[in-house]
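Service request form, structural biology core

Requester: graduate student, group of Dr. S.
Request type: structure prediction, single chain
Budget code: on file
Notes: please return the result as structure tokens.

Sequence provided:
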Amino acid sequence: MYINKAFVYGNLTRDPELKALPSGSQVVNFGLATNRTYKDKDGQKQEATEFHNIVAFGRSAELIAQYMKKGRPLFVEGRIQTRSWESEGQKKYRTEIVVENFQFGDGGKGGGASGASKVAEEQPSPKEADEIQYPDEEINPEDIPF
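Core staff response, request fulfilled:
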């Protein structure tokens, strides 16, 4: 059995371009950037960025085009596909990820964990907010109307 599956979580490098195929179905193309941090042989922190070509069809294409913009995070699950065509007598190739499933990211301009921690910092702690006052008496289950 062979497996062709890609999971990518990154930020859009450009606004999605929605187009209609001759059949009437929708197709969207966009770029997604992922990065990784590592230490080189001297122990210095380095960052490398990869750029991925993404294509989605049908309802997925419509949703991505409607809600996503450059810089927004997106999780994509799909298959890797390489297309080829001739242009001006030269054979050209393009490798892309065809979307099979996707999820919108955290809505921020950054990566997952940093966006989640920002939200947590903005929420007031229970001590700062009005604390809930619970009754001192016990609740009798027979008093519950359902």
